[in-house]
Amino acid sequence: MQTQDQRLLIVDDDEMFCHVLSRALSRRGFEVQVAHDADQAMTLITQFMPTMATLDLKLEHSSGLKLLPDMLASAPNCRIVVLTGYSSIATAVEAIKLGAVNYLCKPADADDVIAAFDHQDGDPDIELADNPPSINRITWEHIQKVLQEHDGNISATARALGMHRRTLQRKLQKRPVRR
Q: Can you give the pTM of this predicted structure?
């Protein structure tokens, strides 16, 4: 990838992750700016005009999925890769539908991020999993899908799932179940 004149915006509320990633990408020739919340991201996207951005799916006070269309409206030529530690099929599909060029699960390093920007076409030769996902993973995916359908509203999602709101909150605080 040609890195000259490549402006990259990192939108993530994890300050240590931002520091490490921005340093690694700067060393690779990118001009990097960092935003830790939606307001900072929107300010920087209009001032900095990045050609690329990484966007955390779960920001402290907002959702990366809600921010994604606003970022693209302000910088339509910006290519955005969604990064998350809370991956699910539902959020991956929605991120791509909303305009992200790729979706990465954390932990991801600078090479993974650069590769995600380079690899924008589908891969029909990708290996299919030998084993189906575990029941715990299917449960996690379903919760994420219902949460997305209710725009992140915990109470409405809990009602739709027929569970207590606090139970749902506890489940959402855990890391996603491995496949």
A: 0.73
The C-alpha angle 132, 133, 137, rounded to 5 degrees, equals: 165
Tell me the C-alpha distance between 77 and 7, whole Å.
12
What is the separation of C-alpha 92 from the centre of its chain, rounded to a whole number of angstroms? 8
Q: Is 68 exposed, middle or buried (0-12, 13-18, 19+ CB in 10 A)?
A: buried
Q: What is the pLDDT of residue 172?
A: 82
Q: Identify residue 43 by its one-letter amino acid code.
A: T
Question: In this predicted structure, which of 19-33, 52-66, 95-109, 146-160 has the lowest mean pLDDT?
Answer: 146-160
Separation of alpha carbons 23 and 48, rounded Å: 18
pLDDT exceeds cutoff 60 at 2: no
Q: Which residues pair with 136 in a beta bridge?
A: none
Give pLDDT, residue 4: 47
Question: Nearest to residue 118, comparing CAs of 132, 107, 106, 102?
Answer: 102
Cα 19 versus chain centre, distance: 17
pLDDT at 85: 81
> DSSP letter string over 131-162?
SPPPHHHHHHHHHHHHHHHTTT-HHHHHHHHT
Q: Is 177 exposed, middle or buried (0-12, 13-18, 19+ CB in 10 A)?
A: middle
What is the Cα–Cα distance from 128 to 113, expressed in whole angstroms? 23
